[in-house]
């Protein structure tokens, strides 16, 4: 456990040491064994049936969930006193990453173990856990989560479903319609949100067998066709009063805290999906011959392979850095206290912005990866006989799940700026110092003999740009900055790139000395590719933000600062990409 864990958002104003972060190279033998068990389950029990699953043969999905229960893959977050394993977040994310190779089955699994089960674990009474938790972690009862409605998606608190206490005081009568409910067609237990007396937003544990719960027809979807997605209709649904989950009127706490974990877990899952798609792309490029050569030998294809490899390395570095931070924060809580889960969720909520970053960055890496894999396949990528077509369709939902990427982009800087306004982050003082640097020439020299010194200096400069832009925005709009969505989106893009690049550099730095000479070259190559891309993206977002906020001499000064700070010497970039591409093509795998 690190003693120097930064607070949420603090990465933007402070330096992190590579010694204080968790990386995939730090997995224990037990964690690797769990990953292998998960992967073998997917390879042997899911992938052979993937076409049948995509035809909505849910018997296979239900059987698979029960097999996961037998393997212990449904109980990782459940407390030991109820038969769970209560493992760390790094282990939970590793399993999510491996299960993602199972296509639509992984959607059912992730829903069940995440938003389906976590509300009960975090907020359930002992009696509720005693009644339901064993059924969930064994796979006997699949679970679902009913928040979205036809008229309320991102605006979850705008839900219209109602709950009214019955005359005898024994039941709440629920009415309303829930939309896009994953596992809806076969779930046995639903976490349902409704407003008591049209006012108090509250969660309920609702069994499928309860009178008045009606399962709608399966939606006809673009992708993840083998997952169940239905409406859940509440028609005077009778729910016993003892099935209220958490406090009356505090349903928003359950909804938002569970989504923080869901966003983070989604980041890990799409990392696994990216790796699988990449490998298929590489194998096809090695098999396909044009003009008498394997297409993997062409620079145009090799660059795609290199870019995908580097981006996945960054996404993976980000996810497991965050897993380590969460585990460090949770480990500080006394497990014996009565309000353990309240403190536990606060520990996660502290990093809500980083959870949003994981969701946005990793889902967009997957989007670019599957797009390039289809392109590598050419016309064959457009036909369903090849998996590239399914990867492309299945990917799209990940930028909508768990809060759209637009909503998350608004939340990321919004939460950071809120902390600053409360005095929890000294962002204002740092922003003023950053403004001063615009008028102060820098003569600092970088020692190229120190590994990644150039990239660390770049990260410091990009943080300065974030502070300049966010400081200018707050100074102009004050607390009304929340209404300036275009500015917040630009700030989010900068914050996201900084966290991803810093995670990449710290991971490479931590593992450089203990790596073989060949692996050292690969780590340095990946960092160079990521640093170049991050610089370009931050420069674009910063210029856009500057034009949104300022004008005249101040705008000119900020644009000059952007040219100065969003600058990176990427000498050797082509050689770095060729090394990544050559190694990945030769080994036909994700090479980190």
Automatic annotation (TrEMBL):
Homotetramer. PANTHER family: ACYL-COA DEHYDROGENASE, ISOVALERYL-COA DEHYDROGENASE, MITOCHONDRIAL-RELATED. The keyword Oxidoreductase applies. Residues 144-237 form the Acyl-CoA oxidase/dehydrogenase middle domain. Pfam families: Acyl-CoA-dh_C, Acyl-CoA_dh_1, Acyl-CoA_dh_M, Acyl-CoA_dh_N. It comes from the Bacteria. It comes from Desulfopila aestuarii DSM 18488. This is Acyl-CoA dehydrogenase. InterPro entries: Acyl-CoA-dh-like_C, Acyl-CoA_DH_CS, Acyl-CoA_Oxase/DH_mid-dom, Acyl-CoA_Oxase/DH_mid-dom_sf, AcylCo_DH-like_C, AcylCo_DH/oxidase_C, AcylCoA_DH/ox_N, AcylCoA_DH/ox_N_sf. Residues 249-412 form the Acyl-CoA dehydrogenase/oxidase C-terminal domain. Keywords: FAD, Flavoprotein, Oxidoreductase. PROSITE patterns: ACYL_COA_DH_1, ACYL_COA_DH_2. Belongs to the acyl-CoA dehydrogenase family. Its cofactor is FAD. Residues 28-140 form the Acyl-CoA dehydrogenase/oxidase N-terminal domain.
